[in-house]
Hints:
By secondary structure, the chain is mainly alpha-helical. The protein folds into two domains: 100 residues, no CATH class; 130 residues, no CATH class. 70% of the residues lie in helices and 0% in strands. Helix 3 packs antiparallel against helix 4. It starts with a helix and ends with a helix. The structure holds zinc ion. Zinc ion (ZN) binds next to loops.
Amino acid sequence: MVELIQFILYLYVFIIGIVIGSFLNVIIYRIPREISFAKGRSFCPHCNAQIKGYHNIPIFSYFWLKARCTDCGEPISIRYPLVELCTGIMAVLIFAVYGFSFQWLVVFTAGAILICITMIDFDTMIIPNELVLALMAPALLSFFFFPQVGILSRVIGIVIISLPMLVLALFIPDAFGGGDIKLMAVAGFMLGWGNTLLAAFIGLLLGGAVAVALLVRKTKDKHMAFGPYLCIGIMTALLFGDIIIQWYFSLFGL
Ligand SMILES: [Zn+2]
């Protein structure tokens, strides 16, 4: 019985996640194109036909419609259900760590914004300022709901990664974008300095691995978006940072 209630709770959180993921798809599509996401229903990017409400059910519609627009028959990108699925899984992971709490809400809000930053940075190589500004909301709220991260740790967190990135960017043009630097400053306040270091380390590890893979495959395009890997690092630190740092120190018997 307890297991069933648990399962229903997790399913409920997953559904909240994929519904919000569906909304994130709208934000990800509209911000770079400067279309207001407050007005108008979702539409097909090929024929501009409005998507009917019952064709707009997260994940399921994609398979129901066999990945094609009902009006023009053009394929619907797999990225839409993938973003919904990722948001759903993220909602469940945060629930597993924080339960039903304000902490869930703060971390989920941050994660939703990070998903938007990830996809838009992949698409355009730009992290929109409005999304970095939006991330300030959960960052400021985390000050109240995560009191274990002290104010000094947060202030150091703002500069501990963003400042070295800024210096690097001055000497090596194209090393990082300004968006990456601003992202790490806001994330630094949210995480505190220890978890900010961890987030940047994970980001560098993942981003570095992808950069090497691109070099090996001799991709002509020299530029790659670094923001997505930083976002994965930030999200990992938000969820499991304290556990990972404890485990790391335990390796040295500390
Ligand atoms: Zn269409």
